[in-house]
Amino acid sequence: MTQPFSIAIHGGAGTIERSLMTPELELAYRKALAESVLAGYRVLEQGGSAVDATVAAVTVMEDSPLFNAGKGSVLTYEEAVEMDACVMEGNALNAGAVTLIRHIKNPIQLARDVMQKSPHAMLAGEGAERFAFKECGYTYTEQDYFFTDRRYKELKAMKKSGGVALSEARYPDEKKHGTVGAVALDKHGNLAAATSTGGLTNKRWGRVGDTPIIGGGTFARNGNVAVSATGMGELLMRCAVAGDIAGRMQYGHDSIEQACRDVIHGDFLNLGGEGGVIAIDANGQVNFELNCPGMYRATVNENGEALVAIFADEAFRVENGN
Ligand code: ASP
To answer: Does residue 195 contact residue 206 with C-beta atoms inside 8 Å?
Structure first.
């Protein structure tokens, strides 16, 4: 009997308005999402682990300037890039997270190394980078690599208004972002979740978002669910969104749809939170939930084709990654 396996990804959520999206940009997003989800799918198809599949999918989006993760990360008040990432494996509740990363091209890969090669679950800033260079042989990446003109303009605008920009806030007024994430079930029955972000434009004082917080923006437990969140990190973490969804399913026996809906439209929304989650259960059922006009998202159908959607009211469409 073939074991079920599946994958879903997101590239950020927020005010993504159809009327404001150019056809060229929309196509670029759709292709990048398809490329990412198919990269993860291929790992699963070949019998690879859910962890490696989610890391492969997230790596593609970290390497794209379209998303707020890796290259294309937003800028802090001090005009630097500071990235957060987390990987969790449902098998033994293993997790690795990194935060305040400045010189690593793919923070999601470092998060996996924290999980697999260190005795710790989370490493921050200089220490995390020391671990990367000294223990894992990473190459030092200059901040210049991450800088894009677009992010610099966003920061300037944000400094004027004195705010911090949320993920995909008011698309496309140049405050939009795109934290990225993936969830997967592999052929061995293991669930995994991975999330990576540059955080919020104009963030200050070593701000850390929900992404690297285990049970905040990322969670996975075998037999239960894997979740990756995007949106206003302060509220996602205060509401322990990923852990809450898992708990409702594990102890309250909620379906994946109900758990995601109640959490994303519950305290999180009532407190002013905007965002969404992707989730996958122990049977490989995928679920997307959002409380805002759009979330870049994708999964793969039974024919191995990428299914992509952007706007909240949109049905998934087949898209190839070329
Ligand atoms: N959740 C991310 C953070 O607060 C932002 C996002 O999803 O775009 O760091």
So the answer is: no
Domain ranges of the chain: 6-313
Gap from CA of 148 to ligand 1 centroid (Å) = 19
167 pLDDT more than 80 = no
CA dist., res. 170 & res. 152, Å (int)? 17
Lowest mean pLDDT: which of 33-37, 140-144, 151-155?
151-155
**Nearest residue CA, atom 9 of ligand 1?**
199
**What number of residues does the chain have?**
322
Helix, strand, coil percent values for the chain (each to nearest 5)? 35, 25, 40
What integer pLDDT is reported at residue 171 of this predicted model?
Answer: 37
Protein residue whose Cα sits closest to atom 8 of ligand 1: 167
For ligand 1, pick from 76, 171, 195, 211 the residue to mutate: most ligand atoms within 8 Å of CB: 211
CATH code at 6-313: 3.60.20.30
Give burial (CB, 10 Å; 0-12/13-18/19+) of 101: buried
- Ligand 1 centroid distance, CA of 286 (Å): 21
